Every structure is written in C-alpha cells, then in structure tokens.
Amino acid sequence: MMKNKADEEDYWNSSKFKAFTFDDEDDEFSRLKESKRAVNSIRPLVDEDDDEEEVEKVSWSGEPVGSISWSVNETAASNQRTDREPAFPKINTDTTSISKSHSGYSLSALFKGETHRSLSDSSVRLYAPELRKPKSEYKVTTRLTAVSLEKFRSLQDKLLLLDYAVSAHDGNVITAVLIYLKRTLSKEVLFRELTDRQTALRHFIHYLTESKDQRLLLELLRALGRTEDMALLQYKEHLGIADENKRRDFLKSCLSLPFSPEDSVHVEDHYTLLERQIIIEVIPRKQEIFQKFPRKASILNMPLITTLYYCCFYHYTESEGTYSSPLNIRQTFKLSEKQFFVTALAARAKLKAWPDVDALFTSRNWLGFTRKKSPLSFQRVVDVLHKNSAPTQVLQDYVALVDDAELRITLAQKHKCHDIVINTYRDLKDRQQLLGYRAKMARGSAEERKINELLNNSQIRWKN
Amino acid sequence: MAHSARTDCPELPDFFLLKRLARDQLIYLLEQLPGKKDLFIEADLMSPLDRIANVSTLKQHEVDKLYKVEYKPIVSTSDQLCFLIRPRIQTVKWICDVANADKATGRFRRYKIIFTPQKFYACDAVLEEQGIIGDVTTDEWSFYLLPLDDDIISLELPEFFRDNFLAGDQRWVRTAGSALHLLHSLYGPFSKVYGIGRCSKMAYESWREQVEEGEQKARQAEIGKVFLIDRDVDFVTPLCSQVVYEGLVDDIFKIKCACVEFGPDVTSSDKSIKVMLNSQDRVFNEIRNEHFSNVFGFLSQKARNLQTSYDKRRGMDIKQMKTFVSEELKGLKQEHRLLSLHIGACESIMKKKTKQDFQELLKTEHSLLEGFEIRESISFIEEHINRQVSMIESLRLLCLLSITENGLLPKDYRSLKAQYLQSYGVDHLLTFANLRQLGLLVEQQPGETLTVMESKVGKLVNDRTGGKLSDAFSSLAKKSNFRALSRKLNLVPKSDEEYDLRVPRDMAYIFSGAYVPLSCKLIEQVLERDGWTGLEEVTRLLNGHEFAVTGSSGADSKAKNDAQRIILVMFLGGCTFSEISALRFLGRERGCKFIVVTTAITNSSRLIEALLDNLV
C-alpha cells in the first residue's frame, strides 16, 4: 500500500507529532526517557552487560570488561582506579548529516539532534533497578524483556521506542524493537511507519530475509512500491526448484513480474534457454562424438555461453533449423559475432578440428580472395589454440598474422615457430638478432641452414 | 627491506593476553554445564577456536565428542549437548529442530547454546517461537578478538561487511565497539581517536558509551592513537590484484586464520601441508611485505647461504660436528624446510599467473587506476567475460571500472551486464542488484548528482522525513569520486618515472608503484596533520563522516611516550594483506608501529563473493 501525498501531510501534521517537542519538560520527554530506558534495558539483557561484576560470581561469563578486570587484576596488581570522568567527547552522528545539508530541514529536525545530545550527556543512569540482577538465567531474561517492551502500547510510544533504538545505533536493539512491533502492530500500520524510517526499514528487511519470511517480505516491498526488488526476490525462488520442468514453468510465470525493461529481457532469455536446454538434453546421444568424448555433466541450468559451447562441440554441423544448432542459438539470443566466434573457436580447437578452426576465419573480399579475419586479436587466438594444445603447424599460421612485429616474435619464440622468428628478423634487417637466434637452433637443422643462407645473402642490407 | 628505515620504532604490545582471556572464558562456560557433553561447533568457528584452544583443553573440561554444525539430524548419544555458534537465525532454528525432534521421541537431554561473540535478540525470538525456551540455556562467549600475528588482530566476522554495508544492518556496530573497548581496557587509555565513515562513527560512539559505563583504570598506555575506517571509504584498494608476497599467497592459496594449505603442486610430494604464516616463520617474515618480483632473488640468496652453512660441516672434527648438530642443524633444517616451501609456493604462483595472462590483467588494472585507455580496458574485460574466464575476476574488473570511472556509460553497462549474464548465468541478476545497491557497479546518471536528487526528494515529502531520506541516500550507491581523490591525494604516481621496487620510496610499491592505496594514504595524512585540517576537499569527496577527538585522560600523558607511536587502525568491513604491508612500510618510514584490527582479512574475491546472490 502506498500512501498518497495528502495522507502523508496529514500524518505528519497530526496533533500527536506536533505535540512532540523536546524543549518543555512535559510527559513527552518522560516518554522519551522511558524509551531510552527500555532500549537500554534490552542491551544489557541481550549482551549481558553488567558492571557489577565484583559482587556477582557469574558475571564474567558476560561482558568482557568483567573478565578483563579479573585478568588485569591478576596480571597487573599494581593498577589503581581513578575517578570516573567522561574520557572522550561524544560526536553526534545525527548532527553531521544535518549540518552538512544547506537547506530543507525543519527546525524540529535540527532540534532533534540537539536533544539527543543533551539526553545522552546526562549522567543519570537510567537503568531500571531490576535489570541489575544476574542475567545468565535465560528465563529471567525473556520475562524482563517482555515486561519492558509490553509497556509500550500506543503507536506513539512504539514509534518513539523505535526512533530511540535507531538513534542508539545498535542493530540488535533495533531488530528487537522491530520484532516487538511486528507482533503488536498490523502490517499496514507497521509498513506505513517504516516507509519514512530507512534505517529501521533496512533492519526489518534483513530480519525477514534472514528468517526466510518471504511472504511478509514481498508484502512489505509491494507496500513500499519497490516493485523491481519484489520481482527479483520472486525470481530468486527458482534457485530452490530442482525439477527442470517445474523450474521452467516457474520462470515462465516470472515473465509477468514487474522487472525493469532491461531485466525482463534477461529473464525471458533465461526461460527460453532452459526450455531449449530441456530439449537438447533429451536428444539421443548416439553419434560417435558422444562415445569419443562422453559428456561430463548435464547441460541443464548452464549459462548460455556454455550451452553454445556444448552445441559447437556436439552439434556443430546441424542445420540452422534445429534447436541444438549453434547458429540457431546465436540467432535466438542475438549473440555478438565475437561471443560466437570465441566460443566456437574454443570448442572446435578442443576437438582438434583444425579445418573448422580455419574456416572460422575465412572471409572473401569482393575480389574473391580469401583472407583471415578475426573479431579477436590474433594474439588471443594463438593463446586459445595453444591452450587446446594445437600443434606448431597450426599455431604458426596464426602467429604469422599478429600485426605487431615485436609481439609476433615473442609469440613465435614461445611457441617455437622458428620460421616466423627468422622471417621477422629478416624483415627487420636485424642481423644481430638473427645471429643470436642461430645459436639457439640445433646444429645442422633446417632452421640453421635457413639462417645461414640469409646471412650470406648479399642482397639484404642489414641495419646492424 | 633494503631502505633507510628508522630504527627507533617502539615495541608492540603483547596480544597473547587476548588469547588467554578468550580461552579462560570458554573454559568457564564449559564448566557451567558440568558433566560429559558433546560439543557442536559452527564450521567457521573451527579455525579461530583452533588458534586459542586445542582438543585436549576441551577434553579436560569434559567435552566428549566434537561435531561440526551441519544442519542435519544429529547422531550424538550424549545427554548433554553444547552448541558453540555465531548468532545466526538459521543455526538457532536447526538447534530448535534438534531439541524438538528429541522431544517428539521422548528423549531428555540438556542443551546449552554458547553464542559468540554475542547473542542477538532475534535468536531469542526463534527459541521462543519454537517453544524451547526453558529446555535450552544460553550464554555468550565474548571472543571478540583473535590475534593473528604480532600486529594483526581479527574479529573473524566476514559477514560484517555484507550485513553492514549491503543490508544496512547495524547489528555488529556494538560488537566493534566492544572489541575496541576490550583493547582500550587492556592496552589503553587511548589519547586520540580519528576516523572516517558512518560505521566508524557509530562504533566510536558505542565504544565511548561502554567506556563511560565501565570502570577505568589508571595504567601506562601501550597504544596511544586509534584510527577507524569503513571499508566503503575505499573499495578500489581491495579490488586490485595483490602483488606483495603475503597478499599474493592469500589471493591464490587463501590464508585462513594465518594458516595456509599448500597443495601437492607446492610441496612437490603427494600430500598437502598446512603452514602457519606469521612472524614466527623467519623466511616468511622477511618476504611477506616484498613485491613479488624481489622474492625469487631473495629466496635464492637465502638458499645459497643455507648451502654455505651446511657446507661448513665438511672438514669438521668430531667435536665440532657435535656442536654443529646440536646447535645449528635443527635451525638449518627448519630453515631448509621453510625455504623449500616458499620456493615451491613461488613456482606455483608463477605458473598460475603466467597461465592467466597476469601481466595483461595488471596492465588493465593500472590503466583503470590511471584513467588511460579506458576503451581498451573495456574490451579487455569484455573478452574476459566472453571467454568465461573466472566469474569473480570478471566481476572484480567490472567493479573496478565502475568505481574508477564513477559509473559506466549506460550503453556499456547494459552491454557488459548482458554479456556477463550470458557467460555466467542469468541468476546473477541478483548479484548485479546487490552491486548496484552498494554503488560498486552502477550506470552513470546523466547530469543528475546526488545532491539534486536529495533536495528534490526532500521537497516532495515533508521536511522531517527529508533528514531520514538523505540519510538513506548517502549510504547507498554513492559516488566514488575516485579520479578527483586520486588527483587530490596524488595516489597515482606519474607513469613515466622509473620505480625501483627493491627500494620502495612510498606505499605505492605494494601495487608495483602504480597506486598508493587510498585507505593507507588517508591514515598517513591524518596522522601527519593530527586531524582532518586541510583535507576538507578530500572528506567532501569521501562523503564526510570524518572525526578526530582527543581524550581527556590521554592529553596530559602525551609527552614523549612510546605509546603515542603505536597506532591502532581498525578496518570495519575488512582489510587486505597489501594494506597491512603498506602500513608496515609507513611505520618503518615514520618510526611508529601499526596494529591492524579488522573485522576480517579480505581480498578481492572475498569481497565479491560476499555480494554474490546466485545461489539458494
């Protein structure tokens, strides 16, 4: 449920909140005190904070201070106690954001920060006396908590309690108050109040997420008008569905969810892909290739590119009309040339289908000459081929196509494409390098002979 | 390290006390449940527990069998079950299931849950809902701080990062405050506290309140200054590839509670070895902060020295040999073992890194940091995605691109996101939503800045709500302003200058001289200026929330106290080994020592993994 603007105005101008001022010592102030007391009481209950450890045997099981004092007493007996004084100043966490803003804040907002400070500075210890009892007993804890929170019955008191909890920056306490509010307020009222309390709202969302209360969380997001979050949260449920047909049907039902236009395309692709994978999965695997390279895993729920790889591997030659044809997948999902190219290259290289690899690069220009073209740098191509253990004869064709001479030499040396190294040095007219390279070649090898021929060639004008 | 370090660095306080405290508390808690009992331990508490107690300690206190929490029905036959867990709803629900299953079969047992470091109210609520309050007793083990090394203390709370920065849940703020309080009571009083970030501010407040509530003792301070910093102040640094040895080892082999498991490829045998990596390991201690390019040379020099020492035994007479064996051999053997391990690790690192085109990857990162050749970087990342190279790595590069560029152009964002989903699965839609919420991977908003947005919203609704809304905005997807910060703080040295990595001249050495980590630079600047004066523009770019406060008790004892040169830096949301190395460097340069307290040790993969949402 979304409140309209009028509602909002109305709400904020309602007498209850107008009356809520901090300057005069009216009962609003004591209410706040009470909130603080309640909030503080939760903390010691939950954290077992206790500063009476000397008196109580069990206390050092709780707060570190107790245990430390025990330990410090033991290790450094000479330590003395000093008078208590506030050792460090308070930095107000609220005022910073307020003072940073130049305009647009009401006096009451500023005032709020002010009051908080003065309240917290007061040295009055607001702990209820009954809270100083030992807290290790579980039953006691809950009873006290219940009592201390049950006192807050009016909406106004509850909200004060919540706001106070938020201003104390203890997430545990904020959540504690929220759990109480969830139990004692109707959803509509709670959601409405949380709309304007972002910190509390985030705690509530996190609490619902952690306790897996999906239903209430969806209701909350709907009420807040956060439709995209809602859609994503619902979409996420598909991860828990193991059966592929049920998952596909669930994804289909997701198509109508209020995703952003961009995301709805992705979700539709997801549905189409799974539908497609279910079909591909049951194609009889009789061909030789499945025997030679048995599948290691099912194709279900794999990413699109993995699916494409699979199809390039097992169904490469199929006509574009079939669902498992790589070209059909490319069409359906509007994959870029590069995406298709990289995947097909890797798959065909893996199979050592070098003619297929070669064909991927071949394009004809308008004169009918074929030349190698690649959407991927040839350096990367060599890399992919090398990783799939392509032989040197195959590699050298592609190393030769690397434009940059230096890079070409590095790659050729790495992959032992001697001819390319030698030819490149020749083109660079670099006699020194050639001499050096000859030293690395085996005695009497073809490479050595080739280098010797070049060095003896008087036509070449060496640069060194 | 071969550079002109100052020699007058003060001694670090001894943190062994923290371990003893934690152990004694645990023993006390175990004794609260007298008699034989089986102990169930949450998986991620095993390693931390290992560091402070061993099985025989537990056995001495009548722990019979040990189990890992696995969210399955249990097989224990003991009449008393003790659960040592983090305060998580899921775990508490499981314990309720266990107890209720026993009830259903008429079995009577005693159950005790020990929450560490503290219990949350939400856990109590589950116990109440499931009707087992009264059957179960609960306790808290305030095991806040685990010293990992002489100068590293961890809260071992990796979930701090996601809970606080993504979910906006402040449940750990008080924990951080308590951890600080513990350090303050043992090693304080602190005289000065600096900080930046919303969470830092809240943690400071929580700590300050606890100081006021508790007792204070006059003692000689061992730690003088404190710096608190939120992880979201600097996301760039943890997203970069680490090239300092310790960081690199963490990136590749994953260091867990200062312990690493080297596999067969490192040990060159058929088994894996678990090794503690800390200052006790003399070989490691000398190379941990070194740029990787120096490590090989160092290790081979060391190996040669070792050989010489071994060779000494030639030509010894019996008596000399006897002294050699009893005095030197053991040390040499150990050094030998460590050396061969680290050499093995180096080789394995080299192999892995050359395989994945590490050089090119680094080049891309440096371009992003410098803001040069962005189109080339984008197409590198695109190819990375297309080739389905590591899912985490691709995301890391995308995030780095987004933060350094203040968001991606809408056209790039859409295209890269689509290709990412095609390569790694559409499930990652949720991951992208998380990254956007955190501001790590966003589209550039044409023309509209946050402040315009804020004032618009502020006018729409009533003034009172304006404050809360702007609060919400500032914590979500905020602008990173990296480029401006980089210029202002001179984070990226000019690339045409030679940088000798063997003789580092500044903290940039941890990133091959290409980038001074923002987090550490801020610490350096603030310490130098004793506050934020002169850094107004920087804090504005960082969205504020900076503070610097002086304590009343610390101000007078300030005079020439060694403690003033011991600086505790607390990272809320995790810090990397590279940052620790940078701070160690800074300490040596400035004649001070840093103690790093962190909610967890992080690195780029842990950071990204914490934000993934493609699994149930």
Automatic annotation (TrEMBL), chain A:
<feature type="region of interest" description="Disordered">
    <location>
        <begin position="74"/>
        <end position="95"/>
    </location>
</feature>
<keyword id="KW-0967">Endosome</keyword>
<feature type="domain" description="Vps16 C-terminal">
    <location>
        <begin position="155"/>
        <end position="389"/>
    </location>
</feature>
<dbReference type="InterPro" id="IPR040057">
    <property type="entry name" value="Spe-39"/>
</dbReference>
<dbReference type="GO" id="GO:0005769">
    <property type="term" value="C:early endosome"/>
</dbReference>
<dbReference type="Pfam" id="PF04840">
    <property type="entry name" value="Vps16_C"/>
</dbReference>
<protein>
    <recommendedName>
        <fullName>Spermatogenesis-defective protein 39 homolog</fullName>
    </recommendedName>
</protein>
<dbReference type="InterPro" id="IPR006925">
    <property type="entry name" value="Vps16_C"/>
</dbReference>
<keyword id="KW-0968">Cytoplasmic vesicle</keyword>
<dbReference type="GO" id="GO:0005770">
    <property type="term" value="C:late endosome"/>
</dbReference>
<dbReference type="GO" id="GO:0006886">
    <property type="term" value="P:intracellular protein transport"/>
</dbReference>
<dbReference type="GO" id="GO:0007034">
    <property type="term" value="P:vacuolar transport"/>
</dbReference>
TrEMBL record, chain B:
<dbReference type="Pfam" id="PF00995">
    <property type="entry name" value="Sec1"/>
</dbReference>
<dbReference type="InterPro" id="IPR043155">
    <property type="entry name" value="VPS33_dom3b"/>
</dbReference>
<dbReference type="InterPro" id="IPR043127">
    <property type="entry name" value="Sec-1-like_dom3a"/>
</dbReference>
<dbReference type="GO" id="GO:0016192">
    <property type="term" value="P:vesicle-mediated transport"/>
</dbReference>
<dbReference type="GO" id="GO:0031902">
    <property type="term" value="C:late endosome membrane"/>
</dbReference>
<dbReference type="InterPro" id="IPR043154">
    <property type="entry name" value="Sec-1-like_dom1"/>
</dbReference>
<keyword id="KW-0813">Transport</keyword>
<dbReference type="InterPro" id="IPR001619">
    <property type="entry name" value="Sec1-like"/>
</dbReference>
<dbReference type="InterPro" id="IPR036045">
    <property type="entry name" value="Sec1-like_sf"/>
</dbReference>
<dbReference type="GO" id="GO:0015031">
    <property type="term" value="P:protein transport"/>
</dbReference>
<dbReference type="InterPro" id="IPR027482">
    <property type="entry name" value="Sec1-like_dom2"/>
</dbReference>
<dbReference type="GO" id="GO:0005765">
    <property type="term" value="C:lysosomal membrane"/>
</dbReference>
<comment type="similarity">
    <text>Belongs to the STXBP/unc-18/SEC1 family.</text>
</comment>
<keyword id="KW-0653">Protein transport</keyword>
<protein>
    <submittedName>
        <fullName>VPS33B late endosome and lysosome associated</fullName>
    </submittedName>
</protein>
